[in-house]
Amino acid sequence: MLQTTKAKMIKLFRRRAMIKLESSDKREFKVDKRVMAESLAITNILTGPGSHSPIRVPQVNGDILSLVIKYCRRHAKASMSNDGADEDLKTWDAKFVEVDDAVLFDLILVFSPWSSFPS
Q1: All domains of the chain, ordered by start, with CATH?
Q2: Counting beta carbons within 10 angstroms of the beta carbon of residue 81, is it exposed (0 to 12), middle (13 to 18) or buried (19 or more)?
Q3: pLDDT (tens digit, 9 = 90+) per residue, 30-67?
């Protein structure tokens, strides 16, 4: 089901458009909307009523949001290029999560399917 939802989101965001995300420490990040289709929480905001820019992500500091964007960019690139690089992506993911426990916990919270960020 997640793949179907993801495919719908990528179609929805097919057109290149930039969005701004603002972290809890007021850092702003300009990101392609298609990249952020990798984050269910951000996508829910983008497809929901009253979405506006910048999208405030008050539970996430700039360092964690930067990692989230890095992850989303890598996975979006893999989704858009069906070059069979699944093993490369698995290796990249394994290295990505080699962080201290506090950072890993924050990333898990952000990527949880139940995450939602009030705008």
Answers
A1: 2-111 (3.30.710.10)
A2: exposed
A3: 998 888 878 777 777 666 665 567 888 888 899 999 99
